[in-house]
Amino acid sequence: MNWVELPALKYFVRTGGAKISNCQIECEISYEEIISHVPEGEWARIAPLRVLSFDIECAGRPGVFPEASIDPVIQIANVVTTYGPSLPRTHPCFPHPFVSFLSIVLFLFALSG
Question: Which residues pair with 90 in a beta bridge?
Answer without folding.
Answer: 80
